[in-house]
Amino acid sequence: MAQERELVFDVHEEAEGGYSAVSVGEGIVTQGDTWEELREMVQDATKAYFFDSEAPSTIRLHLVRDEVLAVA
């Protein structure tokens, strides 16, 4: 029985707009101007990266958000 594998991408909002995504544990990097475009780009990049091997069964997009608050 094949084990299900999940590929995780750390996603960052870019200061100039859009998103960038870097896979954890694999050499996949991509970007998109909108969240919908990023989702498509991540799927396309993953398919291309695993073109000759078994691709993961799921992809998780982990949005990393840094927020700095002033302490009064």
Summarize, please.
By secondary structure, the chain is an alpha+beta fold. It contains one helix and four strands. It has a four-stranded mixed β-sheet, with helices on one face.
Strand and helix layout:
Layout: E1 6-13, E2 19-23, E3 29-32, H1 35-49, E4 58-64
Parallel strand pairs: 1-4
Antiparallel strand pairs: 1-2, 2-3
Describe it.
This protein has 72 residues and is of the alpha+beta class. The chain is built from one helix and four strands. Strands 3-2-1-4 form a four-stranded mixed β-sheet, with helices on one face. A hairpin with a 5-residue loop joins strand 2 and strand 3. The protein is elongated. The chain starts with 5 loop residues before the first strand and ends in an 8-residue tail after the last strand.
What spatial order of strands do you see in the largest sheet?
3-2-1-4
Q: How are helices and strands ordered from N to C?
A: EEEHE
Radius of gyration, Cα only, in angstroms? Answer: 14 Å
* Biggest sheet architecture: 4 strands, mixed
Task: Based on Cα principal axes, name the global outline.
Answer: elongated
- Give the uncertain stretches in residue-range form: none
Helix percent reads 10-25%
**Straight-line distance between termini:** 57 Å
By DSSP (H or I, 4+ residues per run), the number of helices equals 1
The structure class reads: alpha+beta
Share of residues in strands: 25-35%
Number of strands: 4
As for the number of domains, it is: 1
